[in-house]
Each structure stands twice: as structure tokens, then as C-alpha cells.
Amino acid sequence: MAQHGGPQQRIFSPLRTALHRFAFILLIVSAFGLMLLGKADTVLIERIRAASADLVSPIMNVVSRPAASINELTEQATNIFNLYEQNERLRRENRELLAWQQVARNLAHENARLRDLADYTSPPPLRLVTTRVIADMGGAYAHSLMVSAGSRDGVIKGQAVMSDEGLVGRVAEAGYQASRVLLITDINSRVPVIVENSRDRAFLSGDNTDRPLLTFLTADAAVAPGDRILTSGHGGAFPPGIPVGVVSSVSENAVRVAPLFRRHQLEYLRVADYGLQGILSDQVMRRDQQNDGVIPNGVGIVPNDGNDAAANMPTVGPAQPTDRLP
User: Fold this and answer.
1) CB neighbours of 295 closer than 8 A, spacing ≥ 6?
2) Is the pTM value of this prediction over 0.70?
3) Residue 251 DSSP SS3
4) Strands annotated E in 68-184
5) What span, in angstroms and rounded, lies between the C-alpha atoms of 179 and 152?
6) What are the tens digits of pLDDT across the range 278-315?
7) Which of 165, 183, 249, 161 shows the shortest CA–CA distance to 213?
8) Strand 243-250 vs strand 201-205: parallel, antiparallel, or unpaired?
């Protein structure tokens, strides 16, 4: 059988055979050469990589378009397939919301009529000041924050400070541009609270830990882990019903509460003005000191000379812990 080929086949055939034999070795040598070149001249390698990316990117863009188009078509087909089910679910939810809307309107009308019959006096409107935490002034022995709102924004001492979840603390000092917030976990904090389920009253006493204590509970108080703790409104410091925390543990010696905030994650807070005067103002404190009757934390009678009729009335501040509840 005659063999086809000419001079070119006789020349390139040995070269092709040699390349097949030593291709693997050549690839290894090339890889090591590129590694050495990269260590010797990093700028050159970076330029080569950038040029390679520029050359390959149009090709990759063209190749990726069919895959992206297929994914879009698949997603659209899935959405169309689920459209009927979603439409039915939205119809059911709409009917339920319309029913609840009618119930809410009836209750609002009934509530308004009952308030008129009872000659109910509505509380003053709530005013909120949203502010930002600018410093954590606390440490191991003090839990307080600095916020960027002061008296120029209507913030005064004693106002409640809340996060989106619930009560954070109260304004301890109000400057012109900034204020200091005393957290409910601070050792100087005492908040009158109530257990939501059992309606037992107590004090939430901070002890410079992340889990403040429930103190002055009655002996027959029914408290269990998971119970929500709300402000009771006693003492005039905070209005009733503000969420404070959840009971985390119950033992013979202590009942601890997990606050609804994390101190190191607080960023924006709201200072709430409920129109309450339970926390003594600076003017009252100065008057008490002038009369030698300082009562910063407890309940006492301000001494007077009989000329001030208002001073004859006992001044009530935030309740100081006692041996038992009255």
C-alpha cells in the first residue's frame, strides 16, 4: 500500500512525536518559570494578568449571556407557575384584614363613647426625640451612654429613653447639646415594674450586670422564665406598659431579667416625653439642698418655715428599696 506524504510530513513528524513525549515536562517547567518570574517582577505579572483579563472578559461576557438568559426564563416560568397560588393567598389575607379592620373600627367607636360617658381625661400627647448614641461612658462599674440630644431639643432630666424593643433607661443629666442616659442595668437604677402574666409588682434593680434583678417580690409571686416584664407606672417616673425585659432565670435567691436591648449594639434611641414629673428636676433638688432636706432617692418631707404652702406637702421621688412592698 502506497504511503502518502511528502517532505513536510517527514520533517514535522519527529517534532510532533517529541512534543507529545515531553509536553508534561514542558508544562511543569513553564509553571515554575512563571512562578519565579512572578516573584522576581510582580509588576510585570500584574500587568500580564490585567491584559489577560481584558482579553478574556468580552469572551466571558458573550458566553455568560445565554446562561443568564436561561436563568431569567426559568425564574419567570417559576413565578408564573406560582402566581395563581400567591393570588389566592393574598385574597384570603385581604378578606381577613378587612374583617379585622371592621372590628377595629367598632372597637374605636365603642372606646370613644365609653370615654365620653366616663368623662375620661386623655393623657398629654407623647413627644419623641430620636437621637444617636455618641459614646459609651460606662464600664465595669457604671452603665451609661451619651446621646446627641439635649435641652435645646426638649430633653430634660428623668425622661424615658427607649429603643425599638423597649425601655433602655432614663435621662440622668441633660446638657444643652448632649445628655447622659442611665441604663436600667446600672447599679443606681430602680424601675417599678409588673409581671405581665401574674400582675405581681416589683422593682427592676440594676447590679452592673447584663441581667438585672427583680427585687421586693412578694412571697407568693408567680414568676417563671419567659414572663414579660413591663413598667408599672408607680412613682410617676415611667408610664405603665413599657416593655422592659423577659425573665431569664428564677432561683431561690434571685430572679434575673434579660433586657430587650444589647448595650454594645445600641445606635439610635428615642427620648420619650410623657409629661410625667416623677424624677426630681434640678430646680427641686437645689431647693431641697438649700432647705437642708436632700432627698435624692427616697420619700421625705422638705423642711420649711411655713411660708411656702407647697413645701408643706411631701415630695415623692423614685422609690427606695425597702424590706417589703407596702
Assistant:
1) 280, 288, 302, 315, 317
2) no
3) coil
4) 127-136, 144-147, 160-162, 167-174, 179-183
5) 11
6) 555 555 445 555 554 444 443 333 333 433 333 333 33
7) 249
8) unpaired
- Using CA atoms, how far apart are residues 277 and 224, in angstroms rounded to an integer? 33
CA torsion, ordered 89, 95, 97, 98, to nearest 10 deg: 160
Among residues 202, 284, 281, 207, which one has the least CA distance to residue 244?
202
Grid cell at residue 292 = 437642708
* 144 backbone dihedrals φ, ψ, rounded to 5°: -150, 160
With CA atoms as reference, report the closest residue to 228 among 262, 178, 194, 254. Answer: 194
Residues 6+ positions from 92 with CB-CB distance below 8 Å:
none
* DSSP reduced 3-state for 196: coil
Decide: 230 and 240 in contact? Cβ < 8 Å.
yes
Three cell numbers, residue 24? 508534561
Q: How many other CB atoms are found less than 10 A from the CB of residue 191?
A: 27
b/e burial code for range 281-316 (CB count within 10 A of at least 16 → b) = eeeeeebbeeeeeebeeeebebeeeeeeeebeeebe
